[in-house]
């Protein structure tokens, strides 16, 4: 592999075939107030249908903010976001957000948790149960359908969260450091499993991580952000076939490239956070 970054053409027309198209997207939190805080600036990014894109950047550079905007939970201050050609204006079951900390309802069974979104949508009980069973089978937890969340390990609970998202048959999974709280072995298993289910479902994935190893294992493309306000510094294609051997020369080379791309941004983010702390 010849590791190289790609320059995005911001004038490229939005295609209804692309899962996500961001054009000039910026976000200022508390805009117009004295607490105004610019989190993102000038984001131009397309995500193809079925593509797995990893967002990598220093802490506070706006990765989660971009997921919230694409989810439709927040509006950008500037620019436009389209989902299969239509402007994103509100949340949609076609776009599922999964966080690091799963919030399963402890008083509901695993199956009821997975079916929760379907019950809000008004699907009949038999259809909900069937969809929950199928989604749990996809994550290898069909046998846990009647268990309570506190009977499961952290990795299993995270799989239930993925099953809950899959049950809605989303076209896009927005994942915010979903495996960061897991131990190394469970995390590696979850990465394999996520690749399997995303390929089987055909959903696009936008995945935030701080782990360069995770980015190398998972991504079709890695988007590297600058320190805040987050801008896209580089978009690095990852053409190696999966499963990837992390010690293969191409993977080692890519890790080095991403480490170097991130280093100066992480230093800049640290310096800014220190300055902020000093001024109280
Ligand atoms: N709801 C909010 N209101 C005001 N400011 C916010 C809000 N959410 C995030 N921010 C600020 O926006 C900036 C970007 O935050 P965000 O969480 O998107 O970054 P991140 O890259 O995901 O960070 P991390 O990697 O540490 O999770 C930060 O300075 C943060 O304090």
CATH topology of the largest domain: Rossmann fold
Structural class: alpha/beta
**What kind of sheet is the major sheet?**
6 strands, mixed
Attached small molecules = adenosine-5'-triphosphate
Helix content: 25-40%
Give the C-alpha Rg.
19 Å
Order of strands across the biggest sheet?
6-7-8-3-9-10
What is the approximate shape?
A: globular
| The CATH superfamily title of the largest domain | P-loop containing nucleotide triphosphate hydrolases
Whole-number count of domains: 2
Overall average pLDDT: 91
Low-confidence stretches: none
State the end-to-end distance: 47 Å
Number-wise, the strands total: 10
Report the portion of residues in β strands.
15-25%
CATH class of the largest domain: Alpha Beta
- Listing every helix as H and every strand as E from the N terminus to the C terminus, the arrangement reads EEEHEEEHHHHEHEHEEH
């Amino acid at each position: 592999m010849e590791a190289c970054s790609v320059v995005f053409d911001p004038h490229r027309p939005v295609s209804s075939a692309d899962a996500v198209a961001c054009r000039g997207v910026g976000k200022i939190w508390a805009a117009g107030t004295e607490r105004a805080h610019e989190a993102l600036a000038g984001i131009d990014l397309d995500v193809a249908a079925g593509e797995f894109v990893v967002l990598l950047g220093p802490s506070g550079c706006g990765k989660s903010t971009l997921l919230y905007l694409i989810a439709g939970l927040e509006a950008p201050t500037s620019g436009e976001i389209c989902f299969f050609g239509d402007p994103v204006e509100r949340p949609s079951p076609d776009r599922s957000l999964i966080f690091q900390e799963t919030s399963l309802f402890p008083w509901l069974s695993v199956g009821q948790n997975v079916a929760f979104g379907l019950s809000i949508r008004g699907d009949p009980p038999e259809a909900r149960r069937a969809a929950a069973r199928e989604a749990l089978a996809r994550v290898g937890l069909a046998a846990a359908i009647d268990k309570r969340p506190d009977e499961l390990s952290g990795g299993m609970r995270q799989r239930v969260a993925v099953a809950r998202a899959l049950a809605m048959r989303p076209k896009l999974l927005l994942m915010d450091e979903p495996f960061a709280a897991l131990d190394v072995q469970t995390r590696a298993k979850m990465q394999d499993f996520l690749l399997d289910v995303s390929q089987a479902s055909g959903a696009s994935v936008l995945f935030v991580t701080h782990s360069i190893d995770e980015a190398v294992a998972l991504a079709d493309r890695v988007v590297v952000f600058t320190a805040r306000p987050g801008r896209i510094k580089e978009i690095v294609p990852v053409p190696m076939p999966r499963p990837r051997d992390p010690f293969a020369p191409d993977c080692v080379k890519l890790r080095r490239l991403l480490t170097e791309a991130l280093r100066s941004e992480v230093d800049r983010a640290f310096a800014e956070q220190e300055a902020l702390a000093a001024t109280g």
